[in-house]
Design goal:
Number of domains: 1
Radius of gyration: 17 Å
Distance between the termini: 7 Å
Number of helices: 5
CATH class: Alpha Beta
Helix content: 10-25%
Strand content: 25-35%
Strand order of the largest sheet: 2-1-15
Low-confidence stretches: none
Oligomer: single chain
Number of strands: 15
CATH architecture: 5-stranded Propeller
Order of helices and strands: EHEEEHEEEHEEEEEEHEHE
Mean pLDDT: 97
CATH superfamily: L-arginine/glycine Amidinotransferase, Chain A
Length: 255
């Protein structure tokens, strides 16, 4: 069984953190409808939704991915680089505790799950404004006993590594080259986003399909030509909060 941990969009969502985008008005009710559609697509892809209640005073808390790194053997509870987001973590940890053994990133380390990209037993971690070298080193020590390697990756002009690169098939990455050097990931196939769609690199691969932002038509066509089956979703309001499709869930398999 595949579980997707999600959280409802809270009423303060329009006050979210933005770092690399200009703040725009967000329609919270529309964001809720888009998020429900996202959950529906996860269900259709074979996931069982474990929905956490909205956190009324934590605008970014719908982005549950940043609170943890979930692997087959354990979950590493993050310490967000944005101090305003640290209160989000404990409720996610409580949701994961029955499902995984937990470890934690401790200060002075910071780490957000959106910076961690897994390819088989390799974890690539973005050095960002939210994740520092101390956090990367702690993650390396926590996951090494389970056979995972950790490689720090330089990124620029974006919030998280997964803003610039996501896995869309077994060994195929969707990448925005201007934000991350594809050579950092070694021997994998690369699909580059269309240059006119710089925010198109965040996609969510679940089983046989890839959930993909409907706004990025040209990049979606590139994926389909490469044999990647996509499901288009309108996530316009989530995108205004500098969020993507991976951000809104933690996906884990239960035996």
């Amino acid at each position: 069984m595949i579980v997707a941990v999600t959280r409802e969009v809270g009423p303060s969502f329009s006050s979210c953190e933005v770092t690399h985008l200009s703040r725009q008005p967000i329609d919270v009710e529309l964001a809720r409808r888009q998020h429900r559609d996202y959950e529906r697509c996860l269900t259709e892809a074979g996931c069982e939704i474990h929905r956490l209640p909205a956190e009324h005073d934590l605008p970014d808390s719908v982005f549950v991915e940043d609170a943890a790194v979930v692997l087959d053997e354990l979950a590493v509870i993050a310490l967000p680089g944005a101090a305003s987001r640290r209160p989000e973590v404990d409720s996610v940890a409580r949701a994961l505790e029955p499902l995984r053994s937990l470890r934690r990133i401790e200060a002075p380390g910071t780490l957000e799950g959106g910076d961690v990209l897994r390819i088989a037993d390799r974890l690539f971690v973005g050095r960002s404004t939210r994740t520092n070298d101390a956090g990367i080193e702690q993650l390396r020590k926590l996951v090494a006993p389970e056979g995972y390697s950790v490689t720090g990756v330089e990124i620029e002009h974006c919030l998280h590594l997964k803003s610039a690169a996501t896995l869309v098939a077994e060994s195929t990455l969707l990448v925005h080259r201007a934000w991350v050097d594809p050579r950092a990931f070694g021997d994998v196939d690369i699909v580059e986003v269309d240059p006119s769609e710089p925010t198109a690199a965040n996609a969510l691969w679940v089983r046989e399909v890839v959930l993909f932002p409907a706004a990025h038509v040209r990049t979606r066509e590139r994926l389909e030509r490469r044999g990647v089956s996509t499901v288009a979703l309108d996530v316009s309001e989530i995108a205004k909060a500098e969020g993507g499709l991976t951000c809104c869930s933690l996906i884990l398999e239960l035996s």
